[in-house]
Amino acid sequence: MSSVCLLCVLGVVGMVLMASEAEMAYRPTGISLQSAPFYKPDPSGMFACLDGSKKIPFNQINDDYCDCADSSDEPGTSACSEGTFVCANHGYIPVTILSSRVNDHVCDCCDGSDEYNSGKSCPNTCLKEREKQLDKFRAHNDGYQKRQQYIKEAKKALEEKKKKLSELTAEFDAENAKLEDLRVAKEEAEKPEKDAKDKYDQMVKEIKSKRSNELMMIKSAEAFLQIDSNQDQSVSLDELLACASIDGGSDQCGMTEEEVKELFPVDQESVDLEGFRELIWTGKLDKVFKSESEKQREELKSQDIEEEEHRDEFDEESENAGVDYDDEDSDRDDNGENSGRSVGDANDEDVPPMDEDTQRLIDVANEARQKFKEQERVTKDVEKEKSDMEKDLSLDLGGESEFFNLVKQCFDFQQKDYTYTFCPFDRGAQKSKNGGSEISLGRWGEWSGPPDNKYSQMKLTKGQRCWNGPDRSLTVNFECGEENKVLSTSEPSMCEYVMQFSTPALCTTYFDFDSEKKVHEDL
Hints:
Elements: E1 3-5, H1 6-9, H2 12-18, H3 21-25, E2 46-48, E3 55-57, E4 84-87, E5 95-98, H4 126-227, E6 235-236, H5 237-243, H6 257-263, E7 270-271, H7 273-288, H8 292-313, H9 315-321, H10 356-394, E8 411-415, E9 418-423, E10 427-432, E11 439-447, E12 457-461, E13 473-480, E14 485-493, E15 496-503, E16 510-512, H11 516-522
Parallel strand pairs: 1-16, 13-15
Antiparallel strand pairs: 2-3, 4-5, 6-7, 8-9, 9-10, 10-11, 11-12, 12-13, 14-15
Helix pairs in contact: 4-7, 4-10
């Protein structure tokens, strides 16, 4: 266990108490107890500058005149520009200050010893400072105890996770084996299904092709008869032009005169039905020509729309008046659609249903696919759980996994108009209190502390890009604290955020509160 003797840190108290009256007589103001042996007069009453450069009479120490080049003769005055003064700070920790601050009417030492000859009255706050420091050490020790608990809990939890991962690995292997068996069964069921469906589809294709050709023959003959105005069993260019229009807006032929001229053979005066089908009908006319029956249906449909609009307009009035508009027209089927068909209307009435053997093969394949799909879902769920567990176990949670307690936790911090969120090992975010969407400050990247204190800093990168700037990033500086919490946030550079975070996980030292007597003995 790493520990520090707390009262050794504050041991200047004991050191002062142990100093004898004789030693104090040779201890000039402004020097440390450790330096006292060097500030004794030699037999001739001289003082040797600590750098050995020369000797001066001992009574010239602290005479407010700088005699030694190293300033060692004036520790208690401001005579030497490079001199230093040691605050004794009785009851607390000695502190070294510049000699220029001695007797400057500003209390720098907690015991006021730096203002011994200025007339400035400085209250002795050393005992209060000592208590403050002791409180910090106590808090540090509380954090240390929590850290030990974190480590203990992490060890147990990680062992359980490793055990669970082993179980998940075995479960995944078993479920994946089932999936492979069902994959083979599915593929075996799909092969005869495909062959049977291909055979049926080919039959349907041939039937539809035949039916389509029959429809073409019927519709093209109907068009030929309508265009052949003189009924001479041939269609001339003039007859075809009569069906066309200048701009192609004809409601029958739907072609321009230029298009008709391009289709009509230049070396013939007219074409019979066979030539009409070969040269004119399949060129474009089959796509735009409207037979009389088609025009009649369009006209009926238009009337239906007007009638529906009329019914909607008077619907409420009709209900109040008890009028019944449910009478069906004689040419409508049960669905309200016009049942009249032209001679060439296409339909699937000629397509036979699948035979029982084909349907049975489809049912078998569907069942195999369903079983495979269900097993695939089970296998993927186990695989995801296994992957998440592997990810958790791969995290660098500290030398003793002391940061395990922070995994899957998030901490919020309110600052001015923003709420900052930090989720260790995951993400950082910023959101305005005035609304709007959350802005990503980065995702977990790596530990980025110095080599001797790697786990003192965490880096989150690849956050939402700043306008006309880089991707946002978040650097989190960790420090020892009694609890896990965000202490502050800042943005020292554009889109580069810094956060201070306290956690017991970083309380690596224990301060040992030994007895005063033991400290004295150690000294």
